[in-house]
């Protein structure tokens, strides 16, 4: 609330969505904020608000990347997508994801302490459909798919030596083939959104590559719905050029993942915004 520009960002999001986004973010109610069609645009708004503070300090990125939903914030930051369009499409994305699989039929699980080859193999050997959804960092992979298959794979993971296999409190099996049918409708809506060539190098989730062409970016956003997030690979790519990162989302989850991927990185986050200056880079 300390920056007029941030207030304007929340106001713009509220106008697009038809409800008070700032009130929803800071006052809830939690049961509404937890609905993914509300969660997604609210997170986007918070992230772009933090990014706007960096811009006011003349701190500009050389690369942008986002984890899953965060790709939309990255595209807004790179001026590839208009903020209002990102708000609209992430709300729709959330609605389509929520309705893609019947309640109680999908699940996700974080597997800790196994490498990706072992996790991929145990998924392939499990009856039903389950697959790796997020390659977050060495020793942390999220699997996604049919609930029974995810539960079975989580038990196998422990048997194979995983430290933990934590069933996540989500009902949407994100980044799995269970999202593929829904992705067709999403693609139709995304085709109405203007996407420009990014002004900052944009590293995508589905390939861990720098994408430049708007058509490539559009296709990537669709594929991301049913493909694994290659976060570890993306960070390794960026680390070839820089090891300084700023996490603009709430919390420090990505900061922790990045540090596990490359211990030589220097990482700032939202809590540091008031103290970061250009001399830190």
Describe this structure in words.
The structure is a single chain. The chain has 281 residues and is α/β, with parallel strands linked by helices. It has twelve helices and nine strands. The protein folds into two domains: 4-100 and 177-280, Malonyl-Coenzyme A Acyl Carrier Protein, domain 2; 106-167, 2-Layer Sandwich (Alpha-Beta Plaits), CATH 3.30.70.250. The strands form three sheets. Strands 3-4-2-5 form a four-stranded antiparallel β-sheet. A three-stranded mixed β-sheet has the order 1-6-7. A two-stranded parallel sheet has the order 8-9. Helix 1 crosses helix 6 (83-100), helix 4 runs parallel beside helix 5 (70-77) and helix 6 (83-100) runs antiparallel to helix 9. The longest helix has 21 residues, at 36-56. The radius of gyration is 19 Å and the shape is globular.
């Amino acid at each position: 609330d300390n920056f007029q520009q941030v207030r304007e960002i929340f106001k713009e999001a509220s106008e697009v969505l038809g409800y008070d986004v700032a009130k929803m973010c800071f006052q809830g109610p939690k049961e509404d904020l937890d609905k993914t069609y509300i969660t997604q645009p609210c997170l986007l708004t918070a992230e772009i608000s933090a990014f706007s503070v960096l811009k006011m300090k003349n701190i500009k990125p050389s690369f942008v990347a986002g984890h899953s939903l965060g790709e939309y914030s990255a595209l807004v930051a790179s001026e590839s997508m208009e903020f209002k369009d990102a708000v609209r499409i992430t709300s729709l994305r959330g609605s389509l994801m929520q309705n893609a699989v019947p309640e109680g039929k999908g699940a996700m699980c974080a597997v800790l302490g196994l490498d990706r080859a072992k996790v991929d193999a145990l998924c392939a050997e499990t009856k039903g459909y389950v697959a790796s959804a997020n390659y977050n960092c060495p020793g942390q992979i999220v699997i996604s798919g049919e609930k029974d298959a995810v539960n079975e794979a989580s038990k196998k993971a422990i048997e194979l030596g995983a430290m933990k296999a934590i069933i996540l409190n989500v009902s949407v099996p994100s980044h799995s083939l269970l999202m593929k049918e829904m992705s067709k409708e999403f693609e139709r809506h995304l085709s109405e959104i203007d996407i420009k060539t990014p002004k900052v190098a944009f590293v995508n989730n589905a390939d861990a590559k720098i994408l430049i062409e708007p058509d490539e970016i559009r296709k990537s956003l669709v594929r991301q719905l049913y493909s694994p997030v290659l976060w570890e690979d993306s960070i390794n790519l960026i680390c070839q050029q820089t090891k300084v990162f700023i996490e603009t989302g709430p919390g420090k989850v990505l900061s922790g993942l990045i540090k596990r991927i490359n211990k030589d990185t220097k990482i700032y986050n939202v809590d540091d915004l008031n103290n970061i200056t250009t001399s830190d880079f």
